[in-house]
Design goal:
heterodimer; A: about 475 residues; alpha+beta; five-stranded mixed beta sheet; 10 helices; B: about 240 residues; alpha/beta; 8 helices
Chain lengths: ~475, ~240
């Protein structure tokens, strides 16, 4: 039997994947900020560490140099006095040690057999038992000291040394200053830890600002508005070239859409002539036939022709409405008057279906639109409202000025409503809801109605909003810019 | 006297259908398919009306219209066009066409419009329109049947006017829509049917004779008798 289960993946791989998933969810800005912060922290740590070490090294080295100078000086003095230390000199040297008490400076003198002959009183207790080592540099605990031979002049540096001196001091002061430096560095690091992410966020925002602007602009782009493009900043940088690429893509999409619309219009025109010939021929023959099976069949051919014609008509209307987005062929129209005219058209229908058609308020409003197209918009939405409203229901029509520049036409019905899944699709081309009035008594629809409404409304800078709840009714809102 | 129509059309299938359709209405029809032939035919035979297709192969039908109008020839011209956009329609009317019809059209509408443009020339309009028992006062917009005033809405009065002007002719839903509400849009509901039914019930209330008749699958007709729009079939049987 084959084991169908997938192999358990490597744990570390899974962990990596989950990390990737989490990392991938962060915004680009945050990711940039995190990387920048890490970079700043690591740099700060490295610089701090290097600085501290160099400072420490330099101080220790300086200590040795000082000791070397001292050793040289005292060796020369010892050579002059041939190793014999008078009480005055002893006093003077102890004074010298006292002035360097802070460094715990001390001096010891050994004879040729490396036996201690004299020492400053400042020699610390812990070093009392320390003997002279064989090396130049010696250390014990926090003390460092130099051992140096001295010779009886003038046989300097030759033969056996007359004796030895040991000069030493404590590194306590160096350590103290290093501890101070550490504290300072810690503060600096803390400040970097706090400011780092903030600076990184600001920097990454600065970096990504043009991109954010571009995204905002792109979000407001409409494919159908031919004048809209992304603005170039003229810097010729990567973002400009990106905007340029988007613009050229946009223009290609638009010309493709235009070609598509043109194609629809052309094919619709091409369809009309043969359709006219078919319809006319069928009509003439039908006129000569007595009622019967043949005439019924021809009638259905005629009905199909009518449907085809309607489809052709509406496709042409769609492409015309798209073209009218260019604002030619529009005139100032009193919307309220036109709604009243439409009411005359539909009142009889509403009454016949026992639906009350009410005009709540019709404010005097003028809009800029194509007369024929606006009428089609009104007829479509009122017709739909009545069509999907059951007997004893009502359709309310309201036209109000919603702002200084906009008006809202609201047609709400108490009809069967639209399901949420259908709602998203109603204004698409060729969408037909299954639920409507008895199809036997109503003319066959093309499924283009709302798409035409949407196209016309958007062509004159308006918006179509549909709100519906199943079983309760639908509200169609058309927001249009007002003239004057 | 039979009406003489000149049809300028280069699609043989369509022109033949129109020829047959017009002859069923006892109109005589001559077909030409080019601009020069059309201009010559109008000059020589003086038809009562010209039905002009704008898209002739390689030629623009508008040239015919321009040529005859240039000679101050008032012959009514009805334009047939496959170009339905507003500007195309306006262009035709600006050149002096009397009416236009967008392809595909209903034969009944073509006939109604031909009748209308040929009559427009001859008839002097009075202040009343009458049809049998119906009377419409055009100035007061009041409608009477056998002297009794009917209470009609403005829309219904316009419907009556349209029907009387096209008496004994079938008016299709499309035509009514276009004439009364200035829209090519018929909608997906039976709006027109509802309007007609309402008008019919008002016209016929208290009278035995129905005046507006439904012609199944075609439209409506104002007629005093039960309409017989269909001519007796040339072949006897429907079963073959």
């Amino acid at each position: 039997m084959v084991d169908g289960r997938p192999k358990p993946e490597d744990a570390s791989e899974l962990l990596g994947q989950s990390r990737m998933r989490y990392w991938g969810k962060l915004t680009f800005r945050v990711r940039t900020a995190v990387i920048l912060t890490l970079f700043i922290l690591i740099t700060a740590l490295a610089v701090g560490f290097a600085f501290r070490n160099v400072a420490s090294l330099l101080q220790v080295k300086q200590t040795y140099l000082d000791l070397q100078d001292d050793a040289q000086e005292f060796a020369e003095q010892l050579e002059l006095i041939a190793g014999t230390i008078s009480p005055e000199r002893s006093q003077a040297w102890n004074r010298h040690a006292a002035t360097h008490e802070l460094h715990h400076w001390f001096l010891r003198v050994f004879d040729e057999k490396k036996k201690l002959t004299w020492e400053t009183i400042s020699v610390p207790d812990s070093l009392q038992s320390l003997t002279l080592g064989n090396t130049d540099i010696q250390e014990s605990g926090k003390y460092r000291f130099l051992n140096r031979p001295f010779y009886r002049s003038p046989s300097r540096n030759k033969g056996n040394p007359t004796g030895w001196i040991q000069v030493g001091c404590s590194l306590e002061l160096v350590e103290d200053s290093m501890a101070q430096l550490d504290r300072l560095l810690l503060w600096v690091f803390l400040i970097v830890v706090i400011l780092g992410p903030i600076v990184s966020l600001i920097l990454s925002a600065q970096l990504l600002n043009p991109l954010t602007d571009l995204t905002k602009q792109a979000a407001e782009l409409s494919v159908t508005n031919r004048t809209q493009v992304l603005g170039l900043r003229g810097s010729g940088d990567e973002l400009d070239s990106f905007a340029g690429t988007v613009n050229s893509l946009l223009s290609r999409v638009r010309s493709h859409l235009k070609a598509n619309e043109d194609w629809i219009a052309n094919s619709a025109h091409q369809l009309r002539s043969p359709l006219a010939a078919i319809t006319s021929n069928v009509e003439v023959v039908l006129g000569r036939l007595p009622d019967g099976k043949s005439s019924d069949m021809l009638s259905s051919v005629l009905n199909e022709c009518e449907y085809l014609n309607k489809l052709v008509q509406q496709l042409l209307l769609l492409s015309e409405a798209n073209a009218i987005g260019l604002k030619s062929k529009c005139s100032q129209i009193r919307l309220d008057t036109m709604i009243r005219e439409s009411s005359d058209f539909f009142e009889a229908l509403a009454t016949a279906n026992n639906i009350s058609l009410n005009f709540n308020s019709l404010e005097p409003i003028t809009v800029l639109a194509n007369h024929e197209h606006l009428r089609i918009v009104l007829h479509n939405i009122i017709d739909n409202a009545i069509k999907y409203t059951l007997e004893n229901g009502s359709v309310e029509i309201e036209l109000t000025k919603t702002s200084s520049s906009e008006c809202t036409l609201r047609v709400s019905d108490t009809g069967i409503g639209i399901s949420p899944t259908d709602l998203a699709r109603v204004s698409r081309r060729f969408f037909r809801s299954d639920s409507g009035r008895d199809p036997a008594t109503t003319p066959r629809g093309t499924g283009l109605g709302l798409n035409i409404v949407k196209t016309i409304v958007e062509g004159i800078d308006g918006r179509l909003e549909i709100d519906s709840s199943l079983g309760k009714g639908t509200t169609v809102q058309i927001v249009l810019p007002i003239v004057g | 006297m039979a009406i003489n129509i000149l049809l300028v059309e280069d699609d043989p299938s369509l022109s033949n259908a129109i020829l047959e359709g017009l002859s069923d209405q006892e109109m005589k029809c001559e077909i030409v398919s080019t601009v020069p032939l059309a201009i010559q035919a109008i000059r020589d035979r003086r038809p009562d009306a010209v039905v002009l297709d704008l898209m002739l192969s390689g030629e623009n039908g508008l040239d015919v219209l321009k040529a005859i109008r240039a000679q101050r020839d008032p012959t009514p011209v009805l334009i047939l066009t496959a170009l339905g956009s507003l500007e195309n329609r306006v262009a035709g009317l600006n050149e002096g066409a009397d009416d236009y019809l967008v392809k595909p059209f209903e034969m009944l509408e073509l006939i109604a419009r031909i009748t209308a443009i040929t009559r427009r020339n001859n008839r002097i309009e009075g202040s009343t329109l009458t049809f049998g028992p119906l009377l419409l006062d055009l100035t007061t917009r009041r409608v009477f049947r056998e002297g009794k005033e009917l209470k009609l809405s403005p829309t219904e009065t316009s419907l009556v006017e349209l029907f009387i002007r096209h008496e004994n002719q079938v008016l299709t839903r499309k035509m009514l829509c276009h004439q009364l509400w200035e829209t090519t849009w018929e909608g997906e509901t039976n709006v027109i049917e509802v309007h007609i039914n309402r008008l019919r019930s008002k016209l016929d209330r208290g009278f035995e004779q129905s005046l507006i008749h439904t012609i199944r699958g075609r439209g409506y007709m104002l007629s005093e008798s039960e309409p017989k729009p269909r001519i007796e079939p040339p072949e006897a049987s429907d079963n073959g």
